């Protein structure tokens, strides 16, 4: 292979590597809180006080006049997750405007891997769930989403010595994955659309965009515009989290248009992300998980019977097998078609580990499951499938990542790479970064 051949998953720039490390530290805490919230919901829902959990989840609050008299579970799914998707929108825009992925050659792989990582699980789910009949195929999109918080938390805890390129790859893949997931929600899980509220929401988003493009940070102006956009989007019949993504896309990444280019400095996107990421990872996602994950196994006549449902089996197969095949297969095809080679510092086992890790589908998978099925029993089966598939994927990924982590730790100890006085590791020098 000639040295001029393009390289897959090559090392990112030092600023990007440092930024990814900071995100990983925050998401590790968020992932821990998400796990605690899930365990708490499962314990409470299967305790003698299970009725109080259901009563709390179904407690309705909010103004009737604005059609916002919703249950706490719905507030978590429609409201708090809008904050999560707003941060997703900020992160995705930042990646493609000022991050290393502004280079189309670098952006292509995680985008294609995200598409493959969604298409293959959907196909596997349809193949397995089709024998269930009825409305089973409505849940085709459930195993297509990767949970950012859980996946990054596992990677941060287990893969402390893994190359930063893999972390960037997973983060970008998961963000693109969530963007595609919210697009699927808007297109395939919207029954009816009320045009007037939708236009009103888009108008509020346009006003929000005008304000942030003028670098206005006043919460008393931006917050009402964002809430108005969310409220009208909710009233339109389109899932309200779509408003969160669209609002995130409007926020400028660079400090000044006149300065131009990625060297213009950080803009409002970084400011908002710094403020809202702790709220998203530490509050919004864990609270949603608490209300969404509380499946009562007693009503299912046992865990085993739940997993006899083809819907649950399709979800498990899609998450555990589909994600791996989709992500790994797409990466291999890209390498073959472009005659690219994996970066010399990496192994294909690293890509296998990331593919398995992508099978941790929790937050968005549960959300799609709620939208896909009206039957309470089938909705409970969906939760079981998502929980089992995510646990299996996390255990397999942890085992693979631990093995790869030991290998890279040995390499680091052998090379003993030091940092210069400027704080930038030697390995990043001489690369124009």
TrEMBL record:
UniProt-recorded name of the protein: Na(+)/H(+) antiporter NhaA
Catalytic reactions of this protein: Na(+)(in) + 2 H(+)(out) = Na(+)(out) + 2 H(+)(in)
Bilayer-spanning residue ranges: 69-88, 109-128, 140-162, 169-189, 195-212, 278-298, 310-335, 347-369, 381-401
The keyword Cell membrane appears for this protein: yes
Keyword Membrane: yes
Annotated family: Belongs to the NhaA Na(+)/H(+) (TC 2.A.33) antiporter family.
Molecular function GO labels: sodium:proton antiporter activity
Function of the molecule: Na(+)/H(+) antiporter that extrudes sodium in exchange for external protons.
Subcellular location, record wording: Cell inner membrane; Cell membrane
Membrane protein topology class: Multi-pass membrane protein
A single GO cellular-component term on record: plasma membrane
Superkingdom of the organism of origin: Bacteria
Organism: Cellulomonas persica
Coiled coil (UniProt feature): none
Gene Ontology biological process terms, A to Z: regulation of pH
Signal sequence residues: none
Keywords, comma-separated and alphabetical: Antiport, Cell membrane, Ion transport, Membrane, Sodium, Sodium transport, Transmembrane, Transmembrane helix, Transport
Principal localisation: membrane
């Amino acid at each position: 292979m000639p040295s001029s051949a393009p390289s897959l998953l090559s090392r990112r720039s030092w600023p990007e590597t440092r930024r990814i490390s900071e995100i990983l530290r925050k998401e590790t805490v968020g992932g821990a809180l998400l796990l605690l919230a899930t365990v708490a919901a499962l314990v409470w829902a299967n305790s003698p006080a299970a009725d109080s959990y259901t009563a709390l989840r179904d407690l309705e609050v909010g103004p009737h006049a604005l059609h916002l008299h919703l249950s706490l579970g719905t507030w978590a799914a429609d409201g708090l997750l809008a904050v999560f998707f707003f941060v997703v929108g900020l992160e995705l825009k930042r990646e493609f405007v000022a991050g290393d992925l502004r280079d189309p050659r670098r952006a292509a792989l995680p985008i294609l891997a995200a598409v493959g990582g969604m298409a293959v699980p959907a196909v596997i789910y349809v193949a397995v769930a089709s024998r269930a009949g009825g409305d089973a195929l409505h849940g085709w999109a459930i195993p297509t989403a990767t949970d950012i918080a859980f996946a990054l938390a596992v990677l941060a805890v287990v893969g402390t010595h893994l190359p930063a390129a893999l972390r960037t790859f997973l983060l970008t893949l998961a963000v693109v994955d969530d963007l595609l997931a919210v697009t699927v929600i808007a297109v395939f899980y919207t029954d009816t659309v009320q045009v007037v509220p939708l236009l009103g929401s888009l108008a509020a988003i346009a006003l929000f965009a005008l304000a942030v493009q003028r670098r206005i940070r006043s919460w008393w102006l931006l917050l009402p515009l964002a809430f108005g956009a969310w409220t009208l989007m909710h009233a339109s019949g389109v899932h309200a989290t779509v408003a969160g993504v669209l609002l995130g896309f409007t926020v400028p990444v660079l400090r000044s248009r006149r300065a131009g280019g990625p060297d213009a400095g950080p803009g409002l996107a970084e400011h908002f992300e710094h403020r809202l990421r702790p709220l998203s990872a530490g509050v919004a996602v864990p609270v949603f998980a608490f209300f969404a994950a509380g499946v009562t196994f007693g009503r299912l006549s046992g865990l085993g019977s739940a997993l006899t449902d083809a819907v649950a089996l399709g979800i498990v197969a899609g998450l555990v097998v589909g994600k791996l095949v989709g992500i790994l297969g797409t990466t291999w095809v890209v390498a073959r078609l472009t005659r690219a080679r994996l970066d010399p510092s990496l192994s294909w086992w690293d890509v296998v580990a990331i593919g398995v890790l992508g099978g941790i589908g929790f937050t968005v998978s549960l959300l799609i499951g709620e939208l896909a099925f009206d039957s309470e029993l089938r909705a409970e089966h969906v939760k079981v499938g998502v929980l089992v598939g995510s646990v299996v994927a996390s255990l397999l990924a942890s085992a693979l990542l631990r093995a790869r982590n030991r290998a890279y730790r040995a390499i680091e100890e052998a090379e003993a790479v030091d940092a210069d006085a400027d704080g930038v590791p030697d390995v990043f020098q001489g690369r124009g970064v």
